[in-house]
Specification:
Layout lengths: L64 E4 L15 E6 L56 E2 L2 E5 L15 E5 L2 E2 L3 E8 L11 H5 L8 E2 L2 E5 L5 E6 L2 E2 L8 E2 L8 H17 L4 E10 L2 H9 L6 E5 L7 H13 L3 E6 L6 H11 L7 E6 L6 H11 L9 E2 L82 H13 L7 H11 L2 H15 L1 H12 L5 E2 L2 H7 L1 H11 L5 E6 L7 H7 L2 E8 L14 E10 L10 H12 L6 E10 H4 L23
Parallel strand pairs: 7-10, 7-13, 13-14, 14-15, 15-16, 18-22
Antiparallel strand pairs: 1-2, 2-4, 3-6, 4-5, 5-10, 8-9, 11-12, 16-17, 19-20, 20-21, 21-22
Length: 690
């Protein structure tokens, strides 16, 4: 229970009224997360959609004129058949010109009396050419070359021939420009696709890529106007272990992206009759495309980087690039993520680095926008201005974490959890203990302070998954912690709000008293939550069994998360339960997030086992019950008290685990719709004062 949105015991009740005005749990005590459930997929991610794009005249894979480019672009191995391009531009439809209407055959040239022309009488000799004043001739200036907005598709690209999948391999798009000599280049790295090998970048990726010159929801709102070439390459379908996975092996090698960009500029020039070179380079990535971005940043220095819920992997390459750019006062980095999900850890690591720059060009921001809609909502705004204050769904740092419930059929998200990355198996979130690394400092409100980070190695695992086991140490003596919360308590009014109530308990009590004060809220959540917290305070450290069968029966959120994992393919898989995904207040307060959730189909395994309700599955869970005091939010005091109790030997962290065999019918069970209580009619009698 250690990620940014899931650490520890007290969870936010999503559907249960909060008794007594107490704070709700996001991490002991935190703001409400809400219980919004997304049951349908986004309109842009509908695999069976019949919608055809009609942007700049594009009408399908066979529209536009076809050109063949071969070795002139330096591709000696280029197969001319693989070089077919589709140009879709306002300037590309020469066949539409109505040249046939001119009747040249009917022109009466024979009637012209050329033979009778008296050429001999022409007095050419008298023409005074020497006196002609050419310098005064009023020559018209040459008209500038105008490039209209257009699109070009490359069905098979020689540089991407190793990428398996459905054509086209490459999409280029540009805006209107006049006599360009340089153009900015934007390259987007897309994420996974629920369509698998059938994914088409024009139909399934371009509309959600953020590669837009206007607001896609309101095309009359103009975005980027600088001469720009947009590049959308198709990734490599790599379904081993996950039928939705796409990677970019052809572009992550040193120099590979540069060659693709130079080739794209040459094709753009041939299609528009211009010769241009690259100006600024902007790299954008969505979801699983972030892994390729990290590899590319190891050897490429773009001018800007925009990531859309894409930092599932170690962000070291991005952090190193950002530091260099901030040191020189150039560049821009905008990171958007959904709090509490697989991208939260890495995104917040980046935030600790760029936050000190206090620059509008370097920001890490949280959003409530659904995962697949993030690039479309914000991409055009960032292309228009990398320092823009984004509109439409940015969450302030103080706001409640809101976790995204994966949408039915949402292939973009399938499989793109931290568990897909070897770097994240068992990665610790030691920053939540109040520290990042030995040489770094904590980021407490009262200023930096050195803290000691213990080694972080999980002693247990479930298959390839190793839960976080931080065993945090106090970030400061309890007396110092009290000073901080005393100041907060003194600022409260006569009526304590949720945060002030907890802070005042910490300000004037010892850690044990704070724990007892917190127990009231835990009891209100339910007896299971109270039993686990009492076990923690009992300091025995013995393992507690998770009643997996009961959890699956009670929690629609747990069933939904397992269904999503099953949909990825295979006969076994791994996922995690975030603390706000239970949709059950008692389970949230009892377990928080569960790092490792494994499922496997029990033999005999039929080929069509997903269609058989009687299919038996074994569900196993493993997690470490502990607290993290350095997290932002109203729960820091309660977490700090619990960590202090562990350090004093008055409480002890412990493992929780369990397994159960259930049927597929039980996993697929849907929660009953809540019954709306009839509104109480109130008769108000107003007294006549006249």
């Amino acid at each position: 229970m250690s990620t940014v949105a899931e650490s520890s015991i007290f969870a936010s009740p999503e559907s249960t009224p909060d008794p007594g005005g107490w704070p709700t749990r996001e991490d002991v005590f935190a703001e409400d997360v809400g219980d919004t459930e997304y049951d349908g997929e986004t309109s842009w991610q509908n695999e069976g959609s019949d919608t055809e794009l009609d942007e700049t005249g594009y009408g399908g894979a066979e529209s536009g004129e076809t050109y063949t480019y071969g070795a002139e672009y330096g591709q000696e191995d280029a197969d001319h058949e693989e070089g077919d391009l589709e140009v879709d531009s306002e300037t590309g439809y020469f066949e539409a010109a109505d040249y046939a209407e001119t009747d040249h055959e009917d022109a009466d040239y024979e009637a012209a009396d050329f033979e009778n022309a008296d050429y001999e009488d022409a007095d050419y000799g008298e023409a005074d050419y020497e006196d002609a004043d050419y310098e005064d001739a009023d020559y018209e200036d040459a008209q500038p070359v105008s490039v209209t907005p257009g699109r070009l598709l490359v069905k098979r690209h020689p540089l991407l021939r190793s990428h398996a999948g459905t054509p086209p391999d490459l999409l280029l798009e540009w805006n209107g420009m006049v006599e360009p000599s340089v153009v900015d280049v934007v390259v987007h790295l897309h994420g996974y696709a629920g369509q698998g090998a059938a994914m088409n970048i024009v139909k399934h990726k371009k509309p959600i890529s953020g590669l837009d010159f206007t607001d896609p929801a309101n095309p009359s709102t103009v975005g980027r106007t600088a001469p720009t070439l947009l590049i959308l390459p198709r990734g490599h379908h790599q379904p081993k272990g996950n039928p939705a996975r796409y990677t970019f092996p052809a572009l992550t090698k040193p120099g590979a992206l540069h060659r693709l960009i130079e080739d794209a500029l040459a094709r753009f020039g041939a299609a528009t009759g211009t010769t241009v070179r690259r100006n600024r380079l902007i790299l954008t990535a969505h979801s699983g495309g972030g892994a390729a971005l990290m590899a590319i940043l190891g050897h490429t220095d773009p001018d800007e980087v925009h990531t859309f819920d894409a930092l599932y992997n170690d962000p070291k390459a991005l952090i190193d690039w950002a530091r260099k750019r901030m040191a020189t006062g150039t560049g821009a980095l905008r990171v958007l993520y959904r709090p509490g999900e697989g991208t939260a850890r890495a995104s917040e690591r980046v935030a600790t680095v760029v936050g000190g720059a206090a620059s509008p060009n370097f920001r890490v921001e949280r959003t409530r926008v659904p995962h697949n809609d993030i690039p479309r909502r914000f991409g055009w705004q960032l292309l228009a201005d990398a320092s823009a204050n984004l509109r439409g769904g940015i969450v302030a740092r103080e706001s409640a974490d809101e976790l995204w419930t994966p949408q039915e059929g949402d292939g973009e998200y399938w499989g793109e959890t931290a568990w897909e990355s070897a770097e994240y198996l068992g990665e610790s979130t030691s920053q939540e203990c109040g520290c990042q690394h030995q040489e770094r400092e904590s980021f407490e409100e009262e200023g930096p302070r050195s803290v000691q980070c213990p080694p972080k190695f999980a002693s247990r695992g479930l298959g390839a998954c190793k839960p976080s086991q931080d065993d945090c140490k106090p970030a400061a003596p309890w007396s110092e912690m009290q000073q901080r919360f005393r100041q907060s308590c003194s600022l409260s009014t006569h009526r304590l709000d949720a945060k002030s109530a907890v802070d005042c308990a910490c300000a004037f009590g010892d850690p044990r008293q704070v724990a007892m004060f917190s127990m009231a809220r835990v009891i209100a959540a339910g007896p299971l939550a109270a039993r686990l917290f009492a076990h923690f305070l009992g300091a025995s450290g013995t393992e507690v069994t998770i009643d997996v069968a009961d959890m699956i029966k009670r929690s629609a959120g747990v069933r939904d998360k397992i269904r999503k994992s099953i949909a990825r393919g295979g006969t076994s898989g791994m996922t995690r339960i975030e603390q706000s995904e239970y949709r059950d207040s008692e389970l949230q307060f009892a377990y928080g997030a569960i790092d490792c959730v494994q499922w496997r189909v029990l033999p005999p395994v039929a080929k069509d086992w997903r269609k058989k309700p009687a299919t038996r599955l074994e569900i196993s869970m493993l997690d470490y019950y502990e607290f993290h005091p350095a997290r932002a939010g109203v729960s820091q005091c309660a977490h700090a008290a619990c960590v202090e109790l562990v350090a004093r030997g008055q409480a002890k962290n412990f493992w929780t685990s369990g397994s159960a065999v259930v049927t597929l019918a039980e996993i697929n069970a849907r929660a009953a719709a809540p019954v709306r209580q009839p509104r109480e009619r109130r008769n108000v009698v107003y007294q006549n004062t006249y």
